[in-house]
């Protein structure tokens, strides 16, 4: 049985989508140390993603001649859409395969593979030289 609505604070009738701690007259719970570290890592990840995307767009636009810029951007956007479509499916397949291993650390297999691909990409880009850029 659901309690009557009159027992809740008046703000809960105005917006039912607010979390309970915003509606309660008590102060919200203080975040624990792991929560603070988690939120800080999310912020760092968001900054890294924005910087990586911006840097890749700048590199793509700086490399070709002006006559080829439209074709290069078209191919780049097509490949980006392909990766956005295939990436989650491939990640799910890797995750399912790692759970089927039934070994210690099985949940980290997908993340180790992704980290290896990222490290390989960093090594690969050490050898890329864009014309006209230092």
Main β-sheet: number of strands, strand sense, barrel status?
none
- Order of SSEs: HHHHH
Q: Give the rounded overall mean pLDDT.
A: 77
**What form results from the Cα inertia axes?**
extended
Portion in helices: 55-70%
Radius of gyration: 24 Å
Strand coverage percent: under 5%
Which structural category fits the helices and strands?
mainly alpha
Tally of DSSP helical segments:
5
Number of strands: 0
| Low-confidence spans | none
Essential attributes:
134 residues, mainly alpha, 5 helices
Please render the helix and strand layout as text.
Layout: H1 11-14, H2 20-23, H3 33-62, H4 69-99, H5 109-125
Q: Can you give a write-up of this model?
A:
The protein is an all-alpha fold and 134 residues long. Among the domains are: 33 residues; 50 residues, no CATH class. It is built from five helices and no strands. The mean pLDDT is 77.
Overview in brief:
The protein has 134 residues and is an all-alpha fold. Among the domains are: 33-65; 85-134, no CATH class. It contains five helices and no strands.
């Amino acid at each position: 049985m659901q309690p009557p609505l009159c027992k809740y604070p008046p703000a809960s009738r105005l917006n039912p989508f607010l979390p309970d701690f915003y509606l309660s007259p008590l102060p919200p719970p203080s975040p624990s140390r792991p929560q603070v570290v988690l939120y800080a890592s999310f912020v760092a990840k968001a900054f890294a993603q924005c910087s990586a995307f911006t840097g890749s767009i700048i590199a793509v636009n700086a490399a070709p001649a002006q006559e080829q810029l439209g074709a290069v951007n078209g191919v780049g956007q097509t490949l980006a859409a392909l990766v956005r479509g295939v990436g989650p499916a491939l990640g799910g397949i890797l995750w399912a395969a790692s759970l089927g291993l039934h070994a210690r650390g099985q949940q980290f297999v997908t993340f180790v593979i992704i980290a290896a691909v990222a490290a390989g990409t960093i090594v690969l880009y050490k050898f890329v030289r864009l014309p006209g850029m230092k």
